[in-house]
Amino acid sequence: MAIAATLGFPRMGPRRELKRALESFWQGKSTEAELLTAAADIKRLRWQLQREAGIDWIPSNDFSLYDHVLDMAVLFDAVPDRFRGMPEGSLVQYFAMARGTDGTSALEMTKWFDTNYHYLVPEFSAQQNFSMRVNKPLAEYLEARQLGIETVPVLLGPISFLRLGKVREQSIEPLSLLPRLLPAYIELLTALHEAGSQWVQIDEPCLVLDLTDAERTSLREAYENIAAQSVPKIMLATYFGSIADNLETALALPVQGLHVDLVRAPHQLDDLSRHGWPQDWRLSVGVIDGRNVWRADMSEALAQVERAVSIAGLGQVHVAPSCSLLHAPWDVELESDMQPEVKSWLAFAVQKLSELCVLKRGVNDGKDAISNHLAANRDARASRKASRRLHNPDVAKRLAQLESLPLARAAAFAERKSKQQEHLQLPSFPTTTIGSFPQTQHVRDMRAKWRKGQMSDAEYELFLQSEIRRWIAIQEELGLDVLVHGEFERTDMVEYFGEKLDGFLFTRHGWVQSYGSRCVKPPIIVGDVARPNPMTVSWTSYAQSLTTRPVKGMLTGPVTILQWSFVRDDLPRDEVCRQIALAIRDEVLDLEAAGIRVIQIDEPALREGLPLRRAEWDSYLDWAVRCFHIAASGVQDETQIHTHMCYAEFHDIMPAIQAMDADVISIETSRSHMELLQAFEAFHYTNDIGPGVYDIHSPRVPTVDEMAGLLRKAATVIHPAQLWVNPDCGLKTRGEAETLAALRAMVTAARQLRHEP
Ligand code: GLN
Ligand code: ZN
């Protein structure tokens, strides 16, 4: 018989109980024992939910107090020296690695493949030794068994673990540490085996990336070494894409099963059947989307499972989500305000469990056994397809006319720059900020009051205007050159626009872990996106009415809105993005018509949208850049378009950044000491750049000298006439006093540079 499997489950609890427990512990309001009790409750709930739903393959060790990659680093004693003074193996040390302490910086954090989840980057050294410390996987396995639940420990595979890390001495490849890691890894597996674990799930998501021959050799070496010992059977899990050219390598490994993501890469079943399925291997088919919120097309999913059965045999098939459900919200039934019809279109993690179990029944007992479910599923899908929420004929019409829109600004950058300068009259090294100013408790309280109806729209508007007024005066006094209104009306740079646009849906409890205790609640793009009314014009024009200096209009770009939302699955992503781009274009043109001559379209998520495989980069970048043009290129030469991107590896996308042709791009560079600018230098980037001169993630106020130093350094790689002066990113998480001090010093630094030869 086929079984139902999950690869991992959300960690936060239905109401983000883990977040609360963690934050209260960090604030010293609760004890370690209380934190661990809260964690144990959540773990138990997750296991019980899965068992009650009928899941046969229930994971353990997919839970984490902060991050599963950090867990592996700690487990194998990959603890950098700066954390060594702390009690070994303690939570103090663990959270110091995750979050840093006063004197110690945390491990670096970066995106987990192409998701919005961030993992902590393991830091190795050339002398790195690995050994097994506190065995968390074993402890969790036994914890579940105590509750009468047999689980499958989930481990990050040795190759992915090393590949995701970095060695301090950059000349050394992380993979060269494999021979030292393997004994510890084998010790872990042996311990699990001795405790009675029959199977482990080893995640090697690196199998969906472009691998070198050396990496493939390491894979073979790792698993051959492991297989030579008495260890549990291994289900090798891949996700987020196709194994493609790594299939042969994977199928030759001495393991007993393979999980493939059929949502992202449905053609993989063809590849498997062509290649020949290894006898007796388990085939885990990811047919339920772990990365999105829509109810599955159950008959299509069932057909895929049946196909898998024809390849591997009924007794060898696992019906599974495409990847861990970590990336899905907990339970759509918590959405008590949501219309039942809309709810019937959605499946969060809990609903996905039932989908898996229904499919299991369908494949084991035949279609008839689940005919009610299939019918209900067909009805829900039909109701969604026919819903008026989805279709806006005007949007379709405008998309059809897109071909005739010019692909670029009318004039070349140099000509635009001189026309803009004629009326902007900016000094050299012009100063500006990235958009948001501190969202103080007061601002948040007022918004909460207004949301609860305790404050009228008019009162709230007056309050926001008073904040804008206060900050325009502050910026004038500081001597900034291009001002902003401060974004006080926005909680979040995507949510705000989603709420103003047609086609978006919001949840109350649809939280997804972003990192540690931090969660995001992405809006859901359900229908055609259109902009019924201007979204930002009144705030920006109000700000502009208060000053003779230019005020910059602030918008979130189409790719970022797409990337940070759950996107409808009935249209290609690029088409949804073009719809958003048209809506932003309307806003840009309205801002221009209202007299705003500098407009920033933020695209911090453009880099992270890059596909995992290089072969797919060009087509993504083509449409992403095209969407920026749709949004930005309708304006007059005299209107200055800015864009902003946070910290990213820019080398890979330089041609796209140049093709975007923003008049000014601001980027996060201070933490890399301007090293990121090298990408722009190497590419001979022609337009203006504002490399961030101070880190906004820390409350520390930088000195004038520091910032002037960074600017001088920038001026050695980029022509000074191209340079702007700004912080790394928005200031909304900072306090007011530190922000004023930092900006004052920043303006002074810019003035110093203006007077240097
Ligand atoms: N304009 C936004 C802000 O200042 C940009 C935020 C971001 O890049 N993530 O808050
Ligand atoms: Zn940013």
From TrEMBL:
The keyword Ligase does not apply. The active site is at residue 697. Pfam families: Meth_synt_1, Meth_synt_2. 5-methyltetrahydropteroyltri-L-glutamate binds at residues 16-19, 111, 116, 518-519, 564, 608. Residues 429-751 form the Cobalamin-independent methionine synthase MetE C-terminal/archaeal domain. Transmembrane segments: none annotated. Zn(2+) 1 binds at residues 644, 646, 668, 729. Its cofactor is Zn(2+). Pathway: Amino-acid biosynthesis; L-methionine biosynthesis via de novo pathway; L-methionine from L-homocysteine (MetE route): step 1/1. Keywords: Amino-acid biosynthesis, Metal-binding, Methionine biosynthesis, Methyltransferase, Repeat, Transferase, Zinc. Zn(2+) binds at residues 644, 646, 668, 729. It comes from the Bacteria. Its EC number is 2.1.1.14. GO terms for molecular function: 5-methyltetrahydropteroyltriglutamate-homocysteine S-methyltransferase activity; zinc ion binding. L-methionine binds at residues 434-436, 487, 602. Residues 5-309 form the Cobalamin-independent methionine synthase MetE N-terminal domain. It catalyses: 5-methyltetrahydropteroyltri-L-glutamate + L-homocysteine = tetrahydropteroyltri-L-glutamate + L-methionine. L-homocysteine binds at residues 434-436, 487, 602. InterPro entries: Cbl-indep_Met_Synth_N (IPR013215), Cobalamin-indep_Met_synthase (IPR006276), Met_Synth_C/arc (IPR002629), UROD/MetE-like_sf (IPR038071). Catalyzes the transfer of a methyl group from 5-methyltetrahydrofolate to homocysteine resulting in methionine formation. Belongs to the vitamin-B12 independent methionine synthase family. This is 5-methyltetrahydropteroyltriglutamate--homocysteine methyltransferase. It comes from Alicyclobacillus sacchari.
